[in-house]
Design brief:
Largest sheet: none
Order of helices and strands: HHHH
Distance between the termini: 73 Å
Shape: elongated
Structural class: mainly alpha
Radius of gyration: 28 Å
Oligomer: single chain
Mean pLDDT: 91
Length: about 120
């Protein structure tokens, strides 16, 4: 290349995009600071309500999943499994996946039993 500098438009576009991001961030910070100075309450005013609804949905889903696997656990117990580790091993051997698609452990079996 002999030491010559070649014009690469991609570099220029990237630099301009980076500069624009910085300008937008600065304008956003300034606008939020001005709103806060005026006494505007920032953020979600109904955050506690939203958290409560989310927690209720997660609990309902966990209860449903526990209800689905409980008959299998009862069957495993009737076949002679006495420990949580035995139950987890039997669930894994049967190919039953956890609600998130993972592997069963003693603690996850205990959590299911505690839900019911």
């Amino acid at each position: 290349m002999g030491g010559k500098a070649y014009f690469r438009p991609e570099h220029l576009y990237a630099a301009l995009a980076e500069k624009e991001r910085a300008l937008i961030a600065g304008r956003t910070k300034s606008a939020l600071a001005a709103a806060k100075a005026r006494g505007v309450r920032l953020g979600n005013p109904k955050l506690d309500e939203a958290r409560g609804r989310a927690a209720a949905v997660l609990k309902a889903e966990a209860d449903r999943a526990a209800g689905n696997v409980l008959p299998i656990i009862d069957e495993i117990r009737k076949s002679g499994a006495t420990t949580l580790r035995d139950i987890a091993d039997a669930l894994n051997a049967r190919g039953v996946s956890t609600p998130r698609g993972g592997k069963w452990y003693a603690a996850s079996g205990r959590n299911v039993l505690a839900r019911v």
